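step 3/5: co-fold with glutathione
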Amino acid sequence: MSRILYDLAGEDESLRFSPYCWRAKMALAHKNLAYDTQPWRFSDKDQIAFSGQGKVPVLVDGSTIVADSQLIADYLEEAYPHEPSLYGDAPGRSLTFFVKSWTERVLHRAIALIVLPDIHAKLAPRDRAYFRATREAAFKRTLEDIATHRHEAQIALATILQPLHATLEQQPFIAGDSPNYADHIIFGALAWGRLISSTPLFEANDPLARWMDAVLETYGLPAGLTA
Ligand SMILES: N[C@@H](CCC(=O)N[C@@H](CS)C(=O)NCC(=O)O)C(=O)O
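step 4/5: write tokens
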């Protein structure tokens, strides 16, 4: 049975930086499921029209089509119950929802204010005008204004990351002794930032970098971030 994940790519096809796609890739790895990726760009909406919407990740698992990273995680949890659980138990699922909300409303925004101009520069040229228009409208600022305030944004991110540092000083993973979907969500955000940022978000020996490598190692994936 074929299993394909539509995965956002930059101008360089090997640059796979979408935080939501990383969640799906880690969830597939957690469930021990092999898959192929189909590189996708913002202007390739027609390629995923079959999913009934216009964003990635989209998973095609045999004859099943699932769009949206959360729906993909829930689908994998239900379809592959004998593989390790993505949430652990019912409280784990509820706590993971908090991690998702915090990541999307706080962490993603903080990283975006550093990397939006970098994303624009690394996209396929045919994607750039769309990306600029949609992101400038969403953030109510130009990419140039965001670039001018990059240093402040980096300081703000360091503050926002403090609870993560504190957590990983106490325990090896967000979910405890081994990673689960809560780790995948935050991993996706930091993978996005690390892959696309033109300046390091944190040093290579930072506990967050070590945690990211430990997550990758858990799934037998190489320490570098590749698709
Ligand atoms: N809620 C969705 C969000 C997915 C999403 O925003 N994906 C971005 C890439 S990171 C996308 O495909 N954007 C298309 C666009 O902005 O047109 C999920 O969790 O999968």
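step 5/5: annotate
The chain has a mean pLDDT of 96.
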